[in-house]
Amino acid sequence: MIALPSAGGAGSGLVEPVAMPDLGWTLWTVAPTGAASRQAALVAAATGLTGLALAFALAAASQKRQRLRAEQAMRLSLERRVAERTHDLSEANTRLRTEIAERERATTALRATQAELIHAGRLAALGQISTAINHEINQPLAALRTFLASTALFLERGDEATVRRNLQRMTEVTQRIAEIIRHLKDFARKTGPEHREPVRLASAAEAALDLLRVRLRAEDVTVDCRIPPDAMVRAEPVRLEQVILNLMVNALDAMRDAPERRLDLCAARATSDEPAPSWRLDVADSGSGIAPEHMAQIFDPFFTTKPAGEGLGLGLSLSSLIVRDLGGSLTAGNGARGAVLTLVLPAAES
Ligand code: ADP
Predict the structure, then answer these.
(1) pLDDT in the model for residue 133
(2) What top-level class would CATH report for the domain 196-350?
(3) Could you tell me the distance, in angstroms and rounded to a whole number, from the CA of residue 249 to the centre of ligand 1?
(4) 315 lines ligand 1 (CB under 6 A)
(5) How far apart are CA 285 and CA 332, in angstroms?
(6) Where are the domains of the chain?
(7) Residue 316 CB–ligand 1 contact under 6 Å
(8) Which residues of the chain have a pLDDT value below 70?
């Protein structure tokens, strides 16, 4: 091969001698190889490119396979984690449900115990005033006996007008006895906090005063009851009566040795501090008041300053439990003379 001059620069060719014996010459033929070389180079380049493309394609395919494998592994692990999480969540859910059910059972049991306790407290309050109630029933019974005896006499004398008048009085006396018994029965009956209705504060206070009438008379207590007739609260009537009775009994106990015994009941709309429209009832007495060192304890169960046998120390704690249940509050303080217990209850319209 020799390099050949060409128009565009140096080229290359294949030199081959051809003997011409007749002429005694040797003819040298030069076949340029540029095109062939270019073709060969092109073929080589094409082959190279194809190889490269193939290699790329293989590499891409393998990479895709790897990516798919990785994606699948990731999906599997994700699914496993989701399944684990779902399992954990469902276990937590079951645990939560069990806890809620247990708590509901405990709350129901607690409510039942509280209701029993409140009822026991009411019976204890009745027990304390039973002598007075006994007297309250015995008095009209004695009056009835007297009326019966005198009526028989008036009948013998033919005094029809007096007989009629006596019969009327006897009817009134039996009505009074029936009323006391109905009242006692109502007061002693079991009630739940669920039952609430609009209650006239004045009626609840009157009912409690009624149960204490004998004691109020015997201890010469002046009662001043200023409760507007439109003072209506949302409450369970018997429990509300129980609270007011407890406050009154405490007031009477505190006034036992007082020179003047005054029991003031005063109701008014509660101030705007309350979250909902409410009524406030102040039960004030002219007793010794609450000693400052006792103020923080008087609502504690079994706290009492009364002699053994006279106080269990449950009145105020049960009362505040009832009032809280009704969505109200019970607080204590001292007034100008004795103690002032303040009961706040949601108004009936709230
Ligand atoms: P108890 O009446 O059985 O003692 P309470 O829970 O009703 O139980 O009252 C607790 C205590 O609060 C009483 O022992 C008394 O010291 C005090 N207390 C309650 N009300 C009054 C009041 N109106 N005046 C003075 N002290 C009172």
Answers:
(1) 79
(2) alpha beta
(3) 9
(4) yes
(5) 12
(6) 2-32, 196-350
(7) yes
(8) 1-12, 192-193, 272-274
